[in-house]
């Protein structure tokens, strides 16, 4: 196989059994990276997914089930990455959930879960992979934030707080590694039509008594001037760029790919 930009490297993408995480995992595998997939409680046929990706891209693909709310499961996953694939060179902190309610109605357990999965898990994975990245003087950490890490929407207080926090973590860690070959950046997507956003579409259609298509258009019209969804493939291409040598001075950036959302 021809040498590709990430040949011989290992990428861990958390929450990569669907949506954006799976799209980014595919893009990194297409660049030659061996991939450790992660998910929690998925109903999908993970063995089949692993076999399909390995065949399509000719790389090693492993999977580790870990609940991102549990530090000891995160530790076990990083240890597994070391044993199975030689350690993590590219870390994509992608696992995330959201819940919509005004703050006075926000269930405390939902707040705790959103902060744990969207923010605290990135602290744990980063602290665990950084010693090896420093030792090798090469590494890439990409945190999946959101336009909601830059601007707010009503009803998403935990998500907005977690994503703003994740951008803060990104900047601090980028400064801590600034003189090394390790870079830390965040990607801030606008709406991507994954299961997470499909639920918003379904809720909007039910609330307003409109079709699914009308609900999609309404969601985009509210926020995304380009009028179309960002795709996991587009985000994967950005992740590949951030992993490249050409991007070695891109540090501590919160890079929005959002059809113009935060330019308004
Ligand atoms: P998704 O619901 O399609 O996928 C979420 C992934 O997270 C799944 O693989 C799931 O197994 C995993 N996950 C959920 N809870 C977990 C847990 N406790 N432990 C481990 N894994 C868990 O979501 P998505 O839309 O692909 O979102 C991926 C990331 O991108 C999230 O961080 C999300 O906040 C962010 N994001 C999404 C959008 C969008 O429009 N879809 C926009 C901006 C940012």
Automatic annotation (TrEMBL):
<dbReference type="GO" id="GO:0003858">
    <property type="term" value="F:3-hydroxybutyrate dehydrogenase activity"/>
</dbReference>
<dbReference type="Pfam" id="PF00106">
    <property type="entry name" value="adh_short"/>
</dbReference>
<comment type="similarity">
    <text>Belongs to the short-chain dehydrogenases/reductases (SDR) family.</text>
</comment>
<dbReference type="InterPro" id="IPR011294">
    <property type="entry name" value="3-OHbutyrate_DH"/>
</dbReference>
<protein>
    <submittedName>
        <fullName>3-hydroxybutyrate dehydrogenase</fullName>
    </submittedName>
</protein>
<dbReference type="InterPro" id="IPR002347">
    <property type="entry name" value="SDR_fam"/>
</dbReference>
<dbReference type="InterPro" id="IPR036291">
    <property type="entry name" value="NAD(P)-bd_dom_sf"/>
</dbReference>
<dbReference type="InterPro" id="IPR050259">
    <property type="entry name" value="SDR"/>
</dbReference>
